Amino acid sequence: MSLRRPLWLAAVFGLLITLLAVPARAAADLPFRDPALPLNTRIDDLIGRLTLTEKISLLHQYQPAIPRLGIGLFKTGTEALHGVAWSTNIDDGGNVVTAKGTVFPQAVGLASTWDTELVKRVGAAVGNEARGFNAVNPRVWGLNLWAPVVNLLRDPRWGRNEEGYSEDPALTGAISVAYGSGIEGDDPDHLRAAPTLKHYLANNNEVRRDTTSSSLRPRVEQEYDQAAFRPAIAADAATGVMASYNLVNGRPATVNPDLNDVARSWTSRALLNVTDAGAPNNLTGSQAYYPALAEADAAALKAGIDSYTTDNTDAGPTTTAITTALAQGLLKKSDVDTAVRHILAVRFRLGEFDPGGGPYGGIGKEAIDTPQHRSLNRQTAAEAMVLLKNAGATLPLGASARKVAVIGPLEKTLYTDWYSGEMPYRVTPLEGIKERLGPGGTVTDTEGADRIALKDVATGRYVTAGTGTGAVLKEGATTAGDTERFDAFDWGQGILTLRSAANGKYVGYNWSNFVNDQDQPNGWFVQQQFKLEPQPDGTQLLRYAGYETAYDWFGPNKYLKADADGTLVLTTADQAARFAKETVASGVDAAVAAAKGADVAVVVVGSMPFINGREDHDRTDMNLAEGQEALVKAVRKANPRTVVVLENSYPATIGWEQANVPAILWTTHAGAETGHALADVLFGDANPAGRLTQTWPRSAADLPDNLDYDIVKTRATYLYSTARPLYPFGHGLSYTTFGYQDLRLAAGPVRPDGRVEASVKVTNTGRVAGDEVVQLYTHQRSSRAVQPEKQLRAFRRVHLAAGQSKTVTLSFRAADLALWDVTRGRWVVERSAHDVMVGGSSDDVRRRATLEVQGETIPARDLFRVTRAAGFDDYQGVELVDETKASGDAVGGTATGDWISFAGADLGRGATGLRAGVAATAAGRIEVRLGSPAGRLLGTATVPATGDVRSYVTVTAPLARTGGVHDVYLVFTGDVRVRDFALTR
């Protein structure tokens, strides 16, 4: 999902509600309202009563009421990644509304618990609160929830890293099953709420997110990206998927046939699949894939989309397009019926047509922000924290820590993110530590931010802000009082936010003026961002750096100057005011002063979720903000007993901190109970057992290009990487220690349809109780294909008292060891020995065993059969492209010398020819070579210009006869597409 609905839609929304008002009396005696009838019978009855126009009206996100049948309005899409969040943000009166309820730790934090039972309880709480908000206003908060996000955290620079769970598909699958099943509830026939998985498929970059294509060769698609979506659908823990903005192998995900052919094959339940916001219009806009909306919407419906999220509350363009598509023969009425059936199946399961709304219909607003949810939130926030380093038993803080300095830009604030609800209360790190210390302790604090004043050197006047609720910024006073002073917070790469000392509000642009009127940086364009750019004469230019500048809406007018009346306005760099930056108070000096006299210094640093990477904005580095790192260094020098609390949503390259700071504790932005949970962990009331769900690299230089999705070729993620990370996947420390003994496998060799069961004795060898996350990995020793270095197969979080031992049993299906055999296009469990490794992280293996798997041996390739070009074994330069707009993948060679290879092909007594399905806009060639891209040339096929990249012809070429087993290479000259090929005798 992308943009929130702007305020101008309020009138439209209100009119819609008025027009679609539902009569008080419903047709209660109709068969579709009889819960005793089978679900399909009820759906059939209702579909049979709907007119074609009414059916088409249900295909838009805002499904109108049908008064003659007593059916109310239904809306797909309420955000619920870690609590119920915003929806349309407009109530019946046209007012902006927010979901003020329980805000749990961000999704990546939920996964960091590695505790599926806990995450299921969180999901249940979110489902209950969704029901509560729905009871308050069903037109704002629907019960079709757009969560969880199961896109894999392949690249830690992804702007939406906070929304996902892990770089690993098995962990992602387990957490999504837990969260989704919690949301849905345990009734076998009804749903508390209906979770929708986001975003199908391979959506892990924000840069040009609607026009970039994720090139997925079959193994990566099957074994990695699809593997993250399959578990929740197969477990009936999700009721549909949202198609992503990006293209997959050259085809927009909105018309990806996987929505029908793959996702629906994983379950016998009906899925309600939706588009992302505005994505249908991209098909004719930025993606230019179809010439008209009727053709685009028809293609999406046939691919498996049921609900169109587009044009805000205005269903007109969608209903017109579908109606036109029917008239033009692009769709059949049965296509519409199929989509409506999917929609109604979920609405029925939600209890909408049952007396009293079904088993969950009685949940009301009392379910929001309950004491039980607050307690669960505190527990979850504590369980999610990861102790990255703890030299010299710095933590937990003991009785000697009675004077604590709490320092840093996040010490007395809690931030929400784009998909957060509004916290009804906030316990900050400072407040949590103060409460935990009690009256016998002393807490000093400082945010460590410079307080500055900005004087226009030409006029001698200072930038002046308003008091109270704020006012338009002007150049006014000639001396610097509170109204001329601002706290400058550094978020990295030169980005600052300026908080007015006059009223504690942040300065931002409101499309007309600069005003100090915001509690926090916020909004889609985050208009509270600035840069101070030093000039050769020692002055500074003040640059407005709100996200709308990235769209270049203002051209060169990105700098501030004073207008004739002193009001600050935008202008060009050469016309900008030159300011003298006066540091009224040094943040570092204040931090050092606080740290020097303390028993321990707790430095709370990290990210601002609206600034440091978010939807539509990837990170371009992974460093801690320069000013924050300087603060940490100064505090560490002033007080050797320094603890860094890193509060952010993603891996950070904190090499200096790891080398020099005694203790480092990571937490995501964890909601209202952050301060309590942090104090619980710092003082040992809770023993940290969170584990990292993705690798933390030492440097961004260790990562491949963020648009390269082939984790096998690029050796990316812990699965394939051989680089030494800063922190490995699964890493996390404890205040106690654990020993592992007696790893045993329950049986000898296992067949592909068998189950692997491993048991290991785990002992708490320390002096305090704690949780260990026991992790089981495997590695396949021999294979036809490149295998992961290790891969998570099972895990379990266990609690052990000091000295206690438990035998932990972990199991998985032998079928989970299968790979996608590109030679035959199917799953295969190979015959091989596997290392079974158990320990505390991917790099902390304590015990090993050998598992013999009685699978099959993949035979040599038979290239005399028609072979899909996309089923190659290796490649250089090529990309996967769409064979046709409707279906199929092909290979596109974009530069001379690009190639694909097919390993271990049995040419028998010799191939004498090549036959290939090709397309090209200009003539090119395909060379057939052996052994390497520069190996023996067997022959060359000439590819003619076919007029269109999707217009295929068959070409042939003679080959020099060669027999035996060889690696066969197809080497391209020109921009050539290959659909399939076969060798001939």
Automatic annotation (TrEMBL):
InterPro entries (UniProt xref): Actin-crosslinking, BXL, CBM6, Cellulose-bd_IV, Fn3-like, Galactose-bd-like_sf, GH, Glyco_hydro_3_C
SMART domains, alphabetized: CBD_IV (SM00606), Fn3_like (SM01217)
Residue ranges of every copy of the CBM6 domain listed in the record: 865-984
Keywords of the record: Hydrolase, Signal
One Pfam family hit: Glyco_hydro_3_C
Molecular functions (GO terms): hydrolase activity
Regions that span the bilayer: none
Family according to the record: Belongs to the glycosyl hydrolase 3 family.
Full protein name: Glycoside hydrolase family 3 C-terminal domain-containing protein
Organism from which the protein derives: Sphaerisporangium corydalis
